Amino acid sequence: MNTRASVQPRAGHLFAPNSASRVRRNGAYWLQAWLPKLVLAPSVAAALFFVYGFMLWTFVLSLTNSRMLPSYEFVGFAQYARLLSNDRWLVASTNLVIFGALFIAICLAIGIVLAILLDQRIRHEGAIRTIYLYPMALSFIVTGVAWKWILNPGLGIQQVVRDWGWESFTFDWLVNPDMAVYTLVIAGVWQASGFVMALFLAGLRAVDDSIIKAAQLDGASLPRIYWRVVLPCLRPVLFSAVMILAHIAIKSFDLVVALTGGGPGYASDLPATFMYDFSFSRSQIGMGAASAMMMLAGVLAIIVPYLYSELRSRDRG
Amino acid sequence: MSALEIRNVRKDFGRTRVLREVSLSIDSGEFLILVGPSGCGKSTLMNAIAGLEPVTDGSILIGNEEVTWRTPAERDIAMVFQSYALYPSMTVRQNIAFGLEMRKVPKAEREATVERVAKLLQITPLLDRKPSQLSGGQRQRVAMGRAIARQPTVYLFDEPLSNLDAKLRVEMRTEIKKLHQTLGTTIVYVTHDQIEAMTLADRIAVMREGRLLQLGTPDEVYNDPVDMFVASFMGSPSMNFIPAQLVRDEHGISLAIGAASDPYRLPFPAARTTPDLDAWVGRRVVLGLRPEHISERTPWGEEDANTHPLTTEVTVAEPTGADILLRVRLGEDEVNARVSPKQNVTPGDRLPLQVDMARAVLFDPERETRIA
Amino acid sequence: MSALEIRNVRKDFGRTRVLREVSLSIDSGEFLILVGPSGCGKSTLMNAIAGLEPVTDGSILIGNEEVTWRTPAERDIAMVFQSYALYPSMTVRQNIAFGLEMRKVPKAEREATVERVAKLLQITPLLDRKPSQLSGGQRQRVAMGRAIARQPTVYLFDEPLSNLDAKLRVEMRTEIKKLHQTLGTTIVYVTHDQIEAMTLADRIAVMREGRLLQLGTPDEVYNDPVDMFVASFMGSPSMNFIPAQLVRDEHGISLAIGAASDPYRLPFPAARTTPDLDAWVGRRVVLGLRPEHISERTPWGEEDANTHPLTTEVTVAEPTGADILLRVRLGEDEVNARVSPKQNVTPGDRLPLQVDMARAVLFDPERETRIA
Amino acid sequence: MDNVIRVQTPGALLARGGIYAALIFMAVVYLAPLLVMLLTSVKTLEDIRAGNLLSLPREITFQPWLHAWSEACTGIRCEGIGGYVWNSVQIVVPAVVISTAIGALNGYALTKWRFKGQEWVFGMLLFGCFIPFQVILLPMAQTLGWLGLGSTTTGLVLVHVVYGIAFTTLFFRNYYVNVPDELIAAAKLDGAGFFRIFLRILLPVSTPIIVVTVIWQFTQVWNDFLFGVAYSSHETQPVTVALNNVVNSTTGVREYNVDMAAAMIAALPTLLVYVLAGKYFVRGLTAGSVKG
Amino acid sequence: NNVEVLHWWTSGGEARAVGVLKDLMEERGHQWRDFAVAGGGGESAMTVLRSRAVAGNPPVAAQIKGPDIQEWGSLGFLGEINTVAKEVGWQALLPEVIIEAMQHDGDYVAVPVNVHRVNWFWANPEVLAAAGVDDMPTTWEAFFEAAEAIKEAGYIPLAHGGQPWQDATVFESMLLGIGGVDFYRQAMVELDQEALASDTMIEVLKNFKRLRDYMDPNAPGREWNAATQMVVNGQAAFQIMGDWAKGELTAAGLTAGEDFLCMGVPGTDHTFTYNVDSLAMFKVSGARAREAQLDLARLSMEPAFQEAFNLAKGSIPARMDLDMSRFDSCAVKSMADFKASADAGTLVPSMAHGMAVSSDAQGAIFDVVTNYFNSRRMTAEEAAERLARAVRAAG
Ligand SMILES: Nc1ncnc2c1ncn2[C@@H]1O[C@H](COP(=O)(O)OP(=O)(O)OP(=O)(O)O)[C@@H](O)[C@H]1O
Ligand SMILES: Nc1ncnc2c1ncn2[C@@H]1O[C@H](COP(=O)(O)OP(=O)(O)OP(=O)(O)O)[C@@H](O)[C@H]1O
Ligand SMILES: [Mg+2]
Ligand SMILES: [Mg+2]
């Protein structure tokens, strides 16, 4: 043993750190080092192929003039040019901004308020929580018809309120091209705000009780305690919530199909429905792929900073 | 004037009674320390004083005004929590100013106060950091700063130093003491640490299972414990409890320890014998002797009437640097003793020691109460 | 035979070098305690020994066999974690037996071992509880039981007592000491607690910023620190560092403290002067004196050549029960002193004290290393 | 927020009343669509034509439910959607079990066995959450074709597993990050290997997050329509496709009560899961998966 | 020998009709595997078809129509069924336009199963009577007059569902009525730029927009059958919709010619906008599958199936030699008009139903039409210009 130690040159580690010892690693050590990677490998391979591979494939398609089925006749960025000059795409993108912003903002607002209210030692909290949460369990394929009725001026809220005697009551967003996108917000908020509530409720429950006590002693009123002290603690939750909501907003498809069908006209179209329509109903897979790439670019713009900060904060923490 | 008065306070959590008829009164400017084993209700009492928990019964007065049913904000109290409870999203400056802001203190005044407090606690360079960027000791000072900024009638400290490491703890202890001396405020302070309790307190309140057992100066509590619990709770290593028989002999009243055939006798200080003690003569008692009262022989020991020689076998010797802790035989038991590090001791040695009976105490072995 | 040997171990986390060429060797049956400030690399060293973190360079030998690149399972080591790390889903029995099960010990033998260990640690009645149903001290014992059951070559304890309260800590400390004596095992133990370090260790290793500063018996480390860091780290309150000038006078070499015009002089023990010390005459040094070496006058003090009288003003007096901690003026500084509780001291008094120079140490004020 | 001294002033009582009123109002709002569906599903067709949405049925009939379960036509098969529920179960159960298991293992490997580039692996997997499913419809079809899994239940399970891994891994990783590393270290020293540590130490403490993941995955897979319709065949269509065929036939007379009953039947399993396991959901989130 | 058929004939009547074909097939010993995907006028079904085709696993036959047949054909997916066609003599049974549509590169690749007339104009006579409208309007001028009267009387003149395809259905019918057959061919079939931007187009668009005044405001998003219900229960007077609307009308217990009236859309009574449903045959491997496929092709043209299917669908059979006695008066009229138009050369393919142009051009037209129709700001001139531009871009 001593001979080996003395034979090893002192400066050895400059070139090959403890190369001599490395030789001595046995099978068990090797397995221990590689098992985690092996376990992750199938998932990584699947992601590489099924996510990144397909993304690449879609990108390639967006450079072709594929129509009904993929073809590989390259046309450069012509599909993007067509896309950007397409009125409907502009409407769809604008709608996504409106829908996304409102959907996220309102879900957060309602979710936070409900979480705070539910945190006040409410009787039957469990039951109420389940009621708020259940919309997340249903897809719009299931609830779409009900929603269409509820928002339909002739059948739904407007009619019910008029039947109650308020004759001039109008709630016709569903059929109003300028307002239709807001009905998407309503239904979307209905579906996701309960989930946001659950996230925040969980967050509230995790906040150190003594911070709230300290704020009480400092003389803050309950609303101020929440606003100034508790909510700022929930920034990580807020971040997760925004991310989940953003991804729901970007992926919103069933919602549009079930509720407005993109109408009136295409006033309530979103990129997801646009992409689907062009790829599959209109046999313009090339352009559909281009719109998909634009969507992905949008997702990247949101998710990359998130991942970056996530990775950074982990480095720090 | 009593700054804080607690009258017959009871507190139940559902079925469990956590505080049982606690009454105490704290003078203005006094430093009161609450000690007691974990779960005895110290934090509950603090919370009740602060108004963070409604009491089940009894009343609380602050500055001679009844506040039992006031909200925490309406009581003039500041509290430092064991976990510091700094607002994580605010800077140190904002943390300190928050209480003032809530009380609508004008901005300029707020800033001046923050500066003053920061200077006092030497955290001026940290004012713009977030709590997560502070070390434990710094956080602790910020928590204190937040309390100090407000200048309330009463401060409550709930184990404020328990998260610090030994060295920092000593430093912070000194700072708190200074602070109390400078500000002259009323403080109620919970701690598990003996040294902290002894060095900081004007008075110490010892609690057990929701009851106040003893309230007195550190000296009283340490040297004059009301029962075996208090006696064992204060001091580390804790007081030796030695079974003995109370006998009357030529010196007056003595304690016979060990084998009945050949007991070791320790005379009880004549000055401290009371008439009540006579009733115990011939019965078994428990002799309470602190480790520092069994120590190496000193020249003056011979002169002192209360000091008695004892030569006995050492079973364990633990040098701690500043002292050597010993376990030595006494009668049929082993007891803790404490000698100077100058001594050269190894287990198995027979060592000449002396027992100082001046501060020895006697307990009823059944009821565990103090006899003398 | 050395049970554990660490040779030139380096460990980097990315760019940060956490361990720098640490080498040490532990004899079979030895109790080694690692101390050092938070973040100095103690846990990292433990993890390296256990094989939980690969080292960057160097090698580790257990029982004279190189294990640097073996998995933790293949090293014959058991570890007790600060957080206990009991398996929450298993009963105490299963927790203790798990390591044996993994090593394919037959069932009957496993059960016998669990019973034996439980008996040793007095946790037999708890065997069928889950960890969540145990108190802190009980958990600690189970964690220990889990380690003991395996009878490995080396035990590692990473701050096993730091989560316990003061009283429990003292009890557990004694148990660990007994255990070590009964089982005669090799132990590496990390602690922040001075008393723990001093009382348990056969040898103490003091670390700082990934380096091993001193390795020695508790006595050596306490009385013969290699530098100011080690000196200040051990002992509470910590050693007084007093700026002084080394002068030669009629007694030999002395330390002049305070105003140059009227210095207070303390002769350095003649027996301990070395030729090297001469080089320092006339230069500024730091005198290290522990608080217990500044104490009340004793009759023998007058006889001792190394003991010098000092009458000075007390600024702070903190009775801790067993002692009184003082801050007293010495020259232009204040120093900590420690006197018996028999003394009656109030701040402002001028008190006759004595300074025991027998264990005084001298440091280079710039490099902070020991001179004598 | 507990343990506040609540002064029983009229104002405080009013505030408390307000909180309850707000909560109940919101509960009604959340329930409205379900209520509309439920009411409609027990009305007769005449009733539906005559009244408005919220009017109570004049007579309650369970005929629509029976019809939807066992008689409604989906294409030329008039066997109701009952049979398709079984198809869905055959897809959902393996998909949920496998994706949860993989997610758990991934989360474990990512948090408890440190290696270089781990965060990047995680980030890379996480991105899979965000890919719009329409994008991968055709490439996936081609791949399934290559694999010979076109129009099979196995193929559908594969698709759901592949695109479920991102979320399940995210959930488990965020949960396992908070499980103390010492636990794993202790088990390593006790001689347990990679899988044993997972099975014996980690899995028993994972119940809350398993519940969250299973609920999430169950909902996602059960409600999926796009993959279900694109990669299934005659025999393997999940219930959502059957429901779509019942509800979305654009020619002929629409039997709204049957549509609604069918929708309710298709939604029942997920609703049940939420109602039964809902409380663990919040608990599981508290236990970890919230941490940003 | 399984025969998997992808279609979106899912509603009750249709499904029963498909059931007839299934029974016929099973009599021949083939296993019918029904693959029905409802929704969105076959959009979902087409998506599925594509995914199946890409996966190399297409069904034996799928419901495909119009130019899509040609696209699938040129992608090489379709198999020929010439033997059956020759054997049965389709050449004689089928009208010219349909034969053209069913062939790719001169081979038969699809079987027609019906002919829908798209430019139908349905009316509720009670409402007309109540509003004092005596005659069915045969010109758009007359229509607007009548509509005004009906509106006065408190009824909705035109029932409509505001979905792009419904908007387009009305639009193309109006275009045919106002612009005539030649203009329709130029604009909607040949996609002639000049025609698309012409003054005629502007006029059509203006009139089209006028219709809004005679529809109820809740139309957007409404299903076509809900609109039909409005005619049934006397809320509305007219509806412009293909003959599948008849299914809804008869299901409500109404009798053609008495309880409801049918007529060509104003100005188009002697023209015929057709929409032919067909089953396209995919290439199959294996003799038995091939045999089954040929049987399917043969049986789809059997009178039994054609009659049953079209009775259920409201359309007329694709083969011209069937006895129409079991059909109602509207269907009989439809058949007569079809033959007459075929002879007169006024038979036109429906753009709105994918018979006239490729789906991308169709989509482009839909976008502009529906957007114009729903927009409050866009002028007819602008719309015409955009129409031309969009069609060019879709090229
Ligand atoms: N909200 C509560 N509900 C029920 N029991 C409680 C509650 N809060 C505290 N208790 C119980 O009251 C008793 C006293 O608790 P308290 O926190 O006052 O103890 P403590 O003396 O502060 O202990 P420690 O020194 O460990 O902080 C404990 O037994 C505890 O379990
Ligand atoms: N996984 C890691 N990655 C990067 N740095 C680390 C890691 N683990 C520990 N360190 C760093 O290594 C240094 C030594 O850490 P270690 O845990 O060994 O300290 P310690 O001496 O045990 O401290 P304590 O007494 O607080 O437990 C610290 O500065 C720490 O931040
Ligand atoms: Mg407490
Ligand atoms: Mg450590």
Automatic annotation (TrEMBL), chain A:
Protein name (database record): ABC transporter permease
CDD domains assigned: TM_PBP2
Matches recorded under PROSITE patterns: ABC_TM1 (PS50928)
Record-linked InterPro entries: ABC_transporter_permease, MetI-like, MetI-like_sf
Transmembrane segments: 38-60, 96-118, 130-150, 179-204, 225-250, 285-308
Gene Ontology cellular-component terms listed: plasma membrane
Family as reported in the entry's similarity comment: Belongs to the binding-protein-dependent transport system permease family.
Membrane topology summary: Multi-pass membrane protein
Principal cellular location given in the protein's record: membrane
A biological process from GO: transmembrane transport
Subcellular location as annotated: Cell membrane
Keywords assigned by UniProt, alphabetized: Cell membrane, Membrane, Transmembrane, Transmembrane helix, Transport
Chain ranges of the ABC transmembrane type-1 domain: 93-308
Organism: Alkalilimnicola ehrlichii
Pfam (any one): BPD_transp_1
UniProtKB/TrEMBL annotation, chains B, C:
Gene Ontology terms: cellular component: ATP-binding cassette (ABC) transporter complex, substrate-binding subunit-containing
InterPro entries reported in the protein's UniProt record: AAA+_ATPase (IPR003593), ABC_transporter-like_ATP-bd (IPR003439), ABC_transporter-like_CS (IPR017871), ABC_transpr_MalK-like (IPR015855), ABC_transpr_MalK/UgpC-like (IPR047641), Mo/tungstate-bd_C_term_dom (IPR008995), NA-bd_OB-fold (IPR012340), OB_MalK-like (IPR040582)
ABC transporter domain mapped to chain residues: 4-234
Any one Gene Ontology molecular-function term assigned to this protein's record: ABC-type transporter activity
PROSITE patterns assigned: ABC_TRANSPORTER_1 (PS00211), ABC_TRANSPORTER_2 (PS50893)
Keywords for this protein: ATP-binding, Nucleotide-binding, Transport
GO biological processes: carbohydrate transport
Protein name: Sugar ABC transporter ATP-binding protein
UniProt source species: Alkalilimnicola ehrlichii
Highest classification ranks of the organism: Bacteria, Pseudomonadati, Pseudomonadota, Gammaproteobacteria, Chromatiales
Automatic annotation (TrEMBL), chain D:
Record flagged with keyword Ribonucleoprotein: no
Protein name, UniProt field: Sugar ABC transporter permease
Membrane topology qualifier: Multi-pass membrane protein
Compartments in which it is found: Cell membrane
CDD domains: TM_PBP2
InterPro entries, alphabetized: MetI-like (IPR000515), MetI-like_sf (IPR035906)
Domain of life: Bacteria
One family name in Pfam for this protein: BPD_transp_1
Gene Ontology biological process: transmembrane transport
One GO location term (cellular component): plasma membrane
Native source species: Alkalilimnicola ehrlichii
Keywords: Membrane, Transmembrane, Transmembrane helix, Transport
Family statement drawn from the similarity comment of this UniProt entry: Belongs to the binding-protein-dependent transport system permease family.
Biological classification of the source: Bacteria, Pseudomonadati, Pseudomonadota, Gammaproteobacteria, Chromatiales
Transmembrane feature ranges: 19-39, 120-141, 153-176, 197-218, 260-282
UniProt domain ABC transmembrane type-1: residue ranges: 85-277
